[in-house]
Amino acid sequence: MKHVLVVFGTRPEAIKLCPLVLELRKHSSDFKTTVCVTAQHREMLDQVLDIFDVRPDYDLDLMRQDQSLAYITSNCLNRIGETIERALPDILLVQGDTTTSFAASLAAYYNKVPVGHVEAGLRTYDKYSPFPEETNRRLTSAIADIHFAPTGTNRDNLLREGIPEDRIVVTGNTVIDALFWVRRKIRANEKPYAELAGVDPGRRMILITGHRRENFGMRFAEICGAFKRLAERHQDISIVYPVHLNPNVRRPVHEILAGVENVKLVEPVDYELFVYLMDRSYFIISDSGGIQEEAPSLGKPVLVTRDTTERPEAVAAGAVKLVGADPQKIVVEAELLLSDRAAYSRMANVENPYGDGHACRRITESLLHLRDLTP
What we know:
Helix content: 40-55%
Order of helices and strands: EHEHEHEHEHEHEHEHEHEHEHEHEHHH
CATH class of the largest domain: Alpha Beta
Distance between the termini: 21 Å
Radius of gyration: 20 Å
């Protein structure tokens, strides 16, 4: 029996790793599966754990108000190192590009525990875009022993960087597993959501999110200004914006958008409601990486308020378009989707390049057949 320690700390990581935890636990005769959370994002993390009914074996509860990257990194490294020494896993699994992922990988390396990297090989090759995620994932790749790449493009990135081909497994992205799991739950239960009271169901809805550090400051204010212009020029739409807890996001969003008649600002919603919002939306404007992966499975175009993306597959397929922080470009591209049915259809009717909802099964099968992961 292999002892697998799964470590995560943020809501996106939890969304993408909880389905894998559930899949691993189906194989209780092959795996002892232990979960450690850093709680890099406390409230939003707990919402996802509740939806998937995953209870951590170790909860490090590291989140502090206005925490710096140095604080998160050093505390994750120390506390995860202590957890590894207690748990004695055979392999540690991390996901994506967070500070938790990098610090957990480094702690495992210091303890000579092999690392499996879920969602490996995403790249922009600009270490400041996105910041600090691009460097986090590249450092994690340097440490990892087995790389679970969502797409062939991700595999090719890793091969160019010298990762041996027999250490790379193309799996699809686990977020599609999570999306389908939660959508089935929503459609089985069919309940009203109090958070959406006052949103006119007869209007086309635009879903908006934003949280990237590289957009903080003037860029974020300009992005919010574009949303305000869009709302005021199109009274027949509703904008729903779940506002991230970071004060660098909340301040400009509320200063610029609060009080706009057809804009609904809500507190961060749990993943179940967020999937419902994505499914109901006409299109999405976001700087989120996960949404770029999920939306094509729901037939929803995405305008990405970033200059670069480590997920070029959806851009190449036509489901995603980069608009950056340019308010004029945001408004023009949004109005094109609102007014041009053919343009909308080209973005909405795209096969999702990120998988079929069976990534967790492929990762589990790979772990079942692993032998020696020492260098």
